[in-house]
Each structure stands twice: as structure tokens, then as C-alpha cells.
Amino acid sequence: MLNIAIVAGGDSGEYGISIKSGKQVELYIDRDKFCPFLVEFRGKNWNYRIGLKKFPINKNDFSLTIGKRKIRFDAVFDAIHGTPGENGKLQGYLDMLGIPYTSCNLTTSALTFNKSFCKDVVASFGILTAKSMHLFKGGNLDEKLILDQLSLPVFVKPNNGGSSVGMSKVSHEKELAPALAKAFHEDPEILIEEFIRGRELTCGVFRSEGMIITFPVAEIIPKKEYFDYEAKYIKGMAEEVIPAKISTRETDRCQNISRLLYEKLNCKGVVRFDYIFNGNDFYFLEVNTVPGLTEASIVPNMVRAYGWNFTELITRLIQEVI
């Protein structure tokens, strides 16, 4: 029986969603194959719980002691959205200890977590992206310069983060300053992108047994103006259409782009690529290297539409790294 640490939580605004993802993995993991331990991360506190009692992780070797029993982990299932599980920090630590994990490696995680740098690399592959600006806290925040270079409406969002935490749509000049402040509250770097009118499509990709698998393309239709945090995680706030109602040719294009990016970015595990489709072209938005795995998340629904159940996905993710 393999001991698997399911890590969840972290130090970003996605903490609560990550805990839910971790609990879903714990619930659906195949206990005939794996012995799971849900480890909650919050700052320097990494704990496994039994009831109300906490058992701290020994950071010297990422082991767990319960009574006289010392537990060493055969692999880590990464369910931390945001830092430190999605930006390469945890990956580097586990690499030094020689413990395998289910997400992308340090370099890929660090690159893809930085939305601006990732967009530049993706554009170098010939994939379309929205015109944007990358700003730093304390730098030049000249609103006139921003509006001279970008056309309204724009999206303002943290450059390092996910789940649309801290994101705003700016349609009028007076909305820009509050949007900048909101994004900078979450991250010292922000990204401002021109709005592209179109449909929001997303494609999950996974390498299993040497094959790169693309799951059915999904369309996200938010009840609100755009796909924000509430639309992502509050039931009834967005409609998911899987498979998306696009032509076979368009589906193939989206999946081919996603497969190309998965390979070029050297991804590992299950990854989700987000796009805007304007009727003619696919514009890359971002890549989620530790996508949500809650009941309300998109990837589990994609997996079911593909013909797998959630337990099979978990099993394959772990088996790929051990």
C-alpha cells in the first residue's frame, strides 16, 4: 500500500477552494491501492489532522509521526492552487527530497504561474494572445499611459494567482484606479489585458501511459458579465457545456493548440488551458497547472465526459509519477 500525501490549502486567496479540492481527492482516491493523508498547508504550519488533533509534518524529510509510527510518503498529490503548490516552490522542495509529485516541475510551474511571462512564451509558439501590460507595485502607474496603450474595456488581475481572485473588468476610465488597487491587494504584480469579445472555452490535457490525452472542450457561460470567482464556485452562477457546441474542426483546433502547449511548456499531470474564441481564432488566456478538483470544478466534469470516473483520474495521476 502506497502512502500518498494529499497537500491542500496554501497561502493565497484560493485556500478554501484548495481545501475542498484536497478533500474531494481524499474522498475518491482508491483505498485498495493508496493510503491517503490530507495535509493542510497554511504558512509554516503543515498539518495532518485526526479529529481535532494536529500532527505536524517534519519539514526535514516531509515525514509524519503519529505516536511511535513514522510515515514516509511514496508520492505527493498536489491540490494546492496558488502558492506554494502551483508556482514551483513546493516542487523545488520535493525535488531536493526526491519525493515525486503529480503536478508540473519547478520551472514549468514558475513560468506558467506568472501570467505575463507565460503569455510571452506562448506567443512565441505562434498562439494568439490579448494585448496587455505587466505592471509592478511601486512602479509607474500612470493611468493615462495605460489608457493610451490599451483600449477599453480591459481586465485587470493579479499576475500571479488564479480563480479570478482580485480580477476586475474596466469599461470606463473612472473604474481603473479601484481595479488597480484591488489587484495589487492580492499581488505586487498585475496584468492588464484588452477585452476580446467571444466565447470562453477551456480544454483539459493529461499525459497517461505515454499518450497525451485531450479531454472534451468545455464552454463556460457565466450568468454574470464574466467568469469571476463567484461564477466559478457558486452553484448556478455559470453554465458548463461539455462538449462545447462548436464544430468538429474548431474542437480539433482547440485540442491541437492545447496539446502543443502541453508539450512545449513541458507540462505534467492534468492541466487546463483557457481561451477566448471570437468565431475565427483562439486567444490564449492562461494555463492552470493545478486546476480545481471540487464538485463545482470543470476538470472532473471533463473527465466524466471523456468516459473516466474521478477515481480513475486520481489513480492515473499517481501512477504516472511512481
Explain what you see.
- Helix content is 31%, strand content 31%.
- It is α+β, with helices and mostly antiparallel strands.
- The chain folds into 3 domains: 108 residues, 3-Layer(aba) Sandwich (Rossmann fold); 64 residues, 2-Layer Sandwich (Dna Ligase, domain 1); 123 residues, D-amino Acid Aminotransferase, Chain A, domain 1 (2-Layer Sandwich).
- The strands form 3 sheets. Strands 6-5-4-3-2-1-7 form a 7-stranded mixed sheet, with helices on one face. Strands 8, 13, 14, 15, 16, 17 and 18 form a 7-stranded mixed sheet that branches.
- Strand 1, helix 1 and strand 2 form a beta-alpha-beta unit.
- It starts with a strand and ends with a helix.
CATH class of the largest domain: Alpha Beta
Give the number of helices: 10
Could you give the order of strands across the largest sheet? 6-5-4-3-2-1-7
Beta-strand share of residues: 25-35%
Helix content: 25-40%
Strands, count: 18
Number of domains: 3
Strand and helix order: EHEEEEEEHHHEEHEEHEEEEHEHEEHH
Mean pLDDT: 93
Low-confidence stretches: none
Q: SSE layout and pairings?
A:
Elements: E1 2-9, H1 15-28, E2 34-42, E3 45-50, E4 53-58, E5 63-66, E6 69-72, E7 75-78, H2 89-97, H3 106-113, H4 115-124, E8 128-129, E9 132-136, H5 143-149, E10 154-158, E11 168-170, H6 176-186, E12 189-194, E13 199-208, E14 211-214, E15 218-222, H7 229-233, E16 238-241, H8 248-264, E17 271-277, E18 282-288, H9 298-306, H10 310-319
Parallel strand pairs: 1-2, 1-7, 8-18
Antiparallel strand pairs: 2-3, 3-4, 4-5, 5-6, 9-12, 10-11, 10-12, 13-14, 13-15, 13-17, 15-16, 17-18
